[in-house]
Specification:
This protein is an all-alpha fold. Helices cover 70% and strands 1% of the residues. InterPro entries: Annexin, Annexin_repeat, Annexin_repeat_CS, Annexin_sf.
Length: 329
């Protein structure tokens, strides 16, 4: 009998969202927003000061109240009133519930922007329950299955891993069967670095069927047995979008905070900023694990994430992102 190990810890809230201790009612917020829209030009600071400090549930209630009182969609009004393209994109994404937001991002990445990397990042960094919810919302929102859009826009092993990861049920707990994890590490070594060529099917099967905790254990065993990380093996044995999907899966299994810190750094490195990535990561992770991401960013790049974002952005767009990121620590 293989013994089981549990590393189950109670998860702390690692969100950076700061909500007022006694928030106004959604009705009051809706009326304040309407006032900010009225008159000559929009009071964007007032809009940001409200919306950047309300959680997903509160934002949904505000939108409901706004619709009831003013017979129009708040998102449509925001689109009309906000000036800068980037602040519009960021604020409108923020207004969605998490699954609706992910669905909107993936759909746009696949069908409008041809941003296959962005779609891969979202799909391969989400938990099985998040993916299940995402698939349902995607279908009800766009009248098509996410799998169909993936089929139409991706190729080869990359397509196979996305479809397998999206549709295969996986355990979400922290328990790991160490014997099986060890066998899986050996199996991946034989399927990759030990042989000439790579058995991609083996990588697809293990990476799509095993839980995040189990995959992290495989990675640890792989390092112990073969002297370097599973990540390095993936880099050696695969390439392109397929490699990116596998690396996202294994990095998020081991340490999502570290993974997203790296994605953000890459988006701001060099000439110009990849604003689509900056917005996507900050808006989608603020209410999940942004405190971890900020800590990892500081540790790795010797600069706070807030300072990095401040130097790469400007205006109301900058204000909005920085308010989501919370204090500069």
């Amino acid at each position: 009998m293989a013994h089981e190990e549990s590393c189950c810890k109670k998860k702390k809230n690692m969100s950076t969202l700061i909500v007022p201790p006694i928030p106004p009612s959604p009705r009051d917020d809706a009326m304040q927003l309407y006032r900010a829209f009225k008159g000559f030009g929009c009071d964007t600071s007032a809009v940001i000061n409200i919306l950047a400090h309300r959680d997903a549930t509160q934002r949904a209630y505000i939108q409901q109240e706004y619709r009831t009182i003013y017979s129009e969609e708040l998102s449509k009004r925001l689109e009309k009133e906000l000036r800068g393209k980037l602040e519009v994109t960021a604020v409108l994404l923020w207004m969605h519930d998490p699954a609706g937001r992910d669905a909107t991002i993936v759909r746009k990445c696949l069908t409008v922007d041809a941003n296959i990397q962005g779609a891969t990042e979202v799909i391969c960094s989400r938990t099985p329950s998040q993916l299940q919810h995402l698939r349902q919302i995607y279908h009800s929102k766009f009248g098509t299955y996410m799998e169909h859009d993936i089929e139409a826009t991706t190729f080869g092993d990359h397509k196979k891993i996305l479809l397998a990861f999206l549709t295969t049920p996986r355990h979400e707990g922290y328990e790991v069967n160490r014997e099986i994890a060890q066998q899986d590490a050996k199996f991946l070594y034989k399927a990759g670095e030990k042989k000439l060529g790579t058995d991609e099917k083996a990588f697809i099967r293990i990476f799509s069927e095993r839980s995040a905790a189990h995959l992290a254990a495989i990675s640890s065993y792989y390092h112990d047995m073969y002297g370097h990380s599973l990540e390095k093996a993936v880099k050696n044995e695969t390439s392109g979008h397929f490699a990116y999907a596998l690396l996202t899966i294994v990095r998020c299994a081991e340490h999502p905070g570290k993974y997203f810190a790296k994605v953000l750094h890459k988006a701001m490195k060099g000439l110009g900023t990849n604003d689509a990535t900056l917005i996507r990561v900050i808006v989608t992770r603020t209410e999940i694990d942004m405190q971890y991401i900020k800590a990892e960013y500081l540790k790795k790049y010797r600069k706070t994430l807030n300072d990095a974002v401040h130097s790469e952005t400007s205006g109301h767009y900058r204000d909005f992102l920085l308010q989501l990121l919370g204090p500069n620590v």
